[in-house]
Amino acid sequence: MLDTKTIEVIKSTVPVLEVHGQTITKQFYQMMFKNHPELLNIFNHANQRQGKQPTALANAVYAAAAHIDRLEEILPVVRGIAQKHRALGIQPEHYPIVGENLLAAIKTVLGDAATDEIIAAWAKAYGVIADVFISVEAEMYKEAELKKGGWRGWRRFVVDRKVKESDVITSFYLKPEDGKEIADYEPGQYITVRVKPEGQEFTHLRHYSLSAAPGQPYYRISVKREDAIGDKPAGIVSTYLHNRIQEGDVLEISAPAGDFMLDQSKTLPVVLLSGGVGLTPMVSMLETMLRQGGSRKATYIHAARCGSHHAMKEHIDQLASRHADRLTAYHIYETPAPGESCDKTGYIDLPWLQSVASPEADFYFCGPVPFMRAINRALKEWGVPQERIHFEFFGPADSLENEMN
3-state DSSP call for residue 139? Predict the structure, then answer.
């Protein structure tokens, strides 16, 4: 526990973090990777370049400082981050490295304003926060290992099938090389792939949502190929998977993780909304719900650029046909090609959403951040309570509130 004086000092720095948080975290990553380049085998380089990781860390540090006297209030956030840490293989020995470089970054950015008292208080606070993460993650490692079919660390999987779903999305069906059981998972969770493409100095890790219902003898991930656009370089891992990995090749996988999951205990109608490759967790949720039977109804709404970018359309249409009493599916194309049919052209907006769904449903959504912000804004305007709004970010957590007002 932290003493009262330390808590007061930490809370006094909250306004400073609000202003200088991202500058501090950018400095932190630069210092840490310079001092410990081996950690580049764990961190997503693209998220570093795009500023997503520093922003996410700045938000986490700010939240921890603001709640330093009641850390239990941010435990859900802690658990979400810890899920990703476990999936990436973060170990207790990494935390002192992070702490040392974070304190050095605070001192560098704030200069004389970072007094010895402030640095000492943050050192104490970081120790408490790190202990919380280490404890939570230890339980997660143990749970993943002891689960039926589970394991710790990395396990080799063979690409049993590679299926092109659209011009930009391909599915990979993965079976364990050792032929043994695989761990079950909750619909909405992800696995983490570790690869070292030829010519790359470091290994690269990526989380990919499982795109099929659990209970299969394989894991399925459906990966969007991230091509170079303007100044944005091509995705190292996605292009490697699309262009180089073939059936029969082996990939290293960590056990399923994640806290974005379909609540299967409810009977409320479900509305699933996805944009682009954000369909992956939604398809897993939808398949699971329909396989369970019962009377729970689902509305599935998918937005894509056009028909050639629309993955799994035939599969969803078949599900809607077989389960017409429980599932209604809609397809929205931003710019459909000549001759392509869809249920709506352009974007999902509130008036249209109100015409096809009920505000009394549970809403789950995933996709590009602008898509998610638009959906979140529409649901808030509609009066859907927060406890019935569920979403997942691909990559470091962003904010959906930036454009709410």
Answer: helix
Q: Are residues 296 and 190 in the same domain?
A: no
Residue 338 CB burial class (10 angstroms; 0-12, 13-18, ≥19) = exposed
Q: What is residue 403's predicted lDDT score, i.e. its pLDDT?
A: 36
Q: What would the DSSP string read from start to end of 296-336?
A: --EEEEEEESSGGG-TTHHHHHHHHHHTTTTEEEEEEESSP
276 is in an annotated binding site: yes
Does the annotation mark 137 as catalytic? Answer: yes
Is there a binding annotation on residue 396? yes
Mean pLDDT value across residues 212-222? 97
Clarify whether residues 8 and 137 are in a common domain: yes
Query: Is-catalytic flag, 381?
Result: no
Question: pTM of the entire structure?
Answer: 0.91
Q: Which of 95, 126, 141, 240 is catalytic?
A: 95
Please determine, for residue 404, whether its predicted confidence score (pLDDT) is greater than 50.
no
Of 55, 77, 42, 84, which Cα lies nearest the Cα of 207? 84
Which one from 29, 62, 126, 137 is the annotated catalytic residue? 137
User: Are 138 and 212 found together in one domain?
Assistant: no
Is 89 annotated as a binding-site member?
Answer: no
For the chain, give the longest Cα–Cα distance.
69
